[in-house]
Description:
This protein is an alpha+beta fold. The protein has helices spanning 8-11, 45-87, 91-98, 109-117, 125-155, 195-210, 230-241, 246-256, 261-270, 275-284, 288-300, 322-345, and strands spanning 4-6, 34-38, 41-44, 176-177, 184-190, 215-221, 308-311, 314-317. Helix 2 packs across helix 3, helix 4 (109-117) packs across helix 5 (125-155) and helix 7 runs parallel beside helix 9 (261-270).
Amino acid sequence: MRKLWINLTILSCLLTFSGISQVAGNLCPASELPVAEIDGSKFTLADVERKRSSDLFQARNTLYEAQRKAVQEFIDEHLLEKQASKEKVTVAELLERHVNSKLAADPPDEALRVYYEGLDTAESFEAVKDKILGHLRQRRIAKAKTAYLQSLRAQAEIKMQLAPPKAEVSLKDTPVRGPADAPVVVVEFADYECPYCQQIQPALDRLEADYKGKIAFAYKDVPLPMHAKAQKAAEAAHCAAEQGKYWEYHDLILASKKLDLPSLKDQARELKLNGTDFDQCLESGQKAAIVSAHLNEAQALGLQGTPSLFINGRFFSGLLSYEQMRDAVEEELSRLSEGAQSAAIR
Length: 346
């Protein structure tokens, strides 16, 4: 019988960010230490990562998000306790002084009735009035508390030391717009027929404009099975790349949302592409392998939908706001700047 031995303490570190953890007394080892032994052959964390890194990435990312949330809540609690001590009150008294007491008066019944009319309920206004008021008060308190915490954060020097997990994303056969030496690379896995991908595009355009020279943007195709036109739209964009107009075509079909086969051909001619060559490329499925490779990579990374973004390898899922993407880019630029300063000091 073959023997399989696994060091569970070491294996648990697969869910950390780099194979090395600085928590729990440095229990997690360097990647060259063995995590498993099979028939006398020892395998290290690096061996596992080389073959199964994509399988573990989503688990790492989930753990990171939970840890980040816990750290942020810890920071908020610490700032509140510190300020309460400074004002010689309890935290509850501090919040009453700076949050609850600042709330506006409850809205009049006329305004509440307008809110009530938008509710899907068979109950009378009188029956739900107190619930509406309670809901509005809680929202106001939450917003006021967030604003107060932001003011405390602005007065403190805070550095988030928790590093996010990062995935290696291939740029083979992937169009990239922006400088080759850009410090930040944004890779979008998307579907031309996906409404959320279309909705996020203005924010991505704004991000590229605001960080021109600092960002390179890459697009990878993930034609979802429920979108019948997405596959050919993706192939069409790569056919346009054959004639040097990938991004012009990409932008055009995203804006027009015309993805049926005749429209894909018409839009190629609108860009003055050679129609015969374009049609032959599209109809023959010449670029299908590129699209398939992008889709396979998305599946290997455990992506569940589109759009999915990787900002310098850091994963973000769903319809992000401009502000969320901007903050992620700023974090990357800050991290790179701090790294350069540390290198210069050494």
